Amino acid sequence: MAKYARARDRTGSTYSRKRAVTACRVCRFRKTKCDNSRPVCGFCQKNGEICVFEGFKSDYSTFDPASLAILDRLNDISSQITQLERLSTSEKSQESSAPEENDMVIMSTDSLYEQNILDWPIFGSSCRVVSAIDSSLSQADDKCSGTDDGGDIPTNDLWKLIDQFLFNVHIKNPILDVQSLIVLARDVAKNGFRFDASSCLLLHVCALGAVSTTYMYPQTNIGISSTETGGTKIQRSLLYFREASRRLSLVPKFSLLEMQCYVLSGIYHMFTMRPLHAWTQFHTTSVSCQIYLEQNNGRLTDTLSRSLEQRLFWTALKSECEIREYIPVPSFGIANFKSPSMFPCPPCISSGSEQRRGLETIGGLASNIDATVERKSWYYYLTEILLRKIQNRVINTLYKDRNESWATMSFPTLVEIISEFETQLSKCHEQLAVDVYFDLDTLHRHDEIIYHLQARFWETYKYLYRPVLYCAIHTSAEATYPQYCAFVSSALSKLFRYCSQFCHSIYYRHHGTWLVLRSMFSSSLILLAGLKSGRLVCKESTKECFIEVFRTLRYWEDEISGVRDIRKLLEGLCADVGMVFVSR
Q1: H-helix or E-strand containing 109?
Q2: Among the residues of 222-298, which ranges form H helices?
Q3: How many folded domains does the chain comprise?
Q4: Cβ neighbours of residue 309 closer than 8 Å, sequence gap 6 or more
Q5: Contact residues for 333 (Cβ-Cβ < 8 A; gap 6+)
Q6: CATH number at residue 39
Q7: What is the pTM of this model?
Q8: Is the distance from CB of 569 to CB of 163 less than 8 angstroms?
Q9: What pLDDT digit, counting tens, does each position of 136-166 carry?
């Protein structure tokens, strides 16, 4: 708590440094030579970066203090973690050479997926294959590919849909400029939608506004299935999405506008539980972003354009990694492309009131998105990127081979690797800004931003401790290395606790709902492996977890084929450990 109290006092845009360095942060991150020109080095001046020299205040005249505080805090955390990430001792002691370090991509591996857990010897040979690419993912998308004109597109709910988009979608993926969006909306409100590129963007916004729901906990009027509670919203959103799709060919190729449209299209497919369709849209964004960055390399662009290209780059990359955790799709070429910045630059948050003024006269909800909410949104977005990097490192270090490789790895080496990543995650958690700080072991469901950020920490810890469970079940590691018994006990306790946190009801439709359902499945398998092996004792709280799992799966199974099969598989495995649940 003392460290947390100190973190809260760090409200300025710069912090004292303990050592001098010769290169600015951007050049050190890119591992390129810095010419050390002050106050802005040659590379940062040429590419529009925020140039920060440790112990030297750069010229930040174009950025407000709130935005600088956000960037500086995240850069601090990232720099500290980078110093910890080398794992030199661990890498030297491994028999095989370590993979090439790249925290921007998940390397090709099958060891991540749920089927690999089902292949553990503890489950025997009775578990059938569960494919992530089932009929619900690969079937033709007849619902979203219609080309009928559908008559005039209504504009009477335009401002309401934009409000809902800003509150429910934009706040977690800020890839648009709000002021530009309002200007465009005013024109459409006056003249109607046109068959042009700008209307394509706004139609995507309306589709997401129509399909999204404001976060609420506890959720009421859930109903018996997602098709019952969300069917009307999806059908309404399809009108806008179809019209947006018809205009995609009119959007200038390899432009910021094209990337924005394809990212929004991908997010829409995630909302409607079609991750493979989403992946194709994010892939197109990736290709467009690479070509855009190549074309604009060395050109001076305005601050807003530079910020938008950075946000689109990181959003496309982050979205790829999220899908590749559960579906064996190819890696994007963007993963091997030099990032335009260490983190995306936030907008000038102090000007947020000017951006929102356009909706105040309409009486829209967006007028309530104040600077505090915007700042919290950006802390979330940037911390998500940082955690994504750490999680990728965990996966690329521990999951490069099939799970069986953990049994042949030197157990002290495995402990050392895990301990190093624990330090990185602990450092990241300790340095969270006060706006998004939370207790890691307490479920925070009343605040959407903190809830999603907390889930990212849990997911990373799950990947980190899964090898410990495998070794504890299938090897004699504890008998061979009794000095590590306390470590194993602590790791398994955390693993089961974080897996249990994922096993709660989720009836809320958002960008990551499908991902949460897959994580719930893998968490359930880990808990069942612990129960079958005796490493986890079945308590009433454990049974309550599975009751929530089955209730949630039943809610979504009519919409997502394959979910029913997953539920039946889990029910059978629960019966094997003495937990019998009555199916409805």
Answers
A1: none
A2: 226-246, 256-271, 275-295
A3: 3
A4: 256, 259, 289, 292, 293, 296, 301, 340
A5: 286, 287, 290
A6: 4.10.240.10
A7: 0.83
A8: no
A9: 454 444 455 444 444 589 899 999 999 999 9
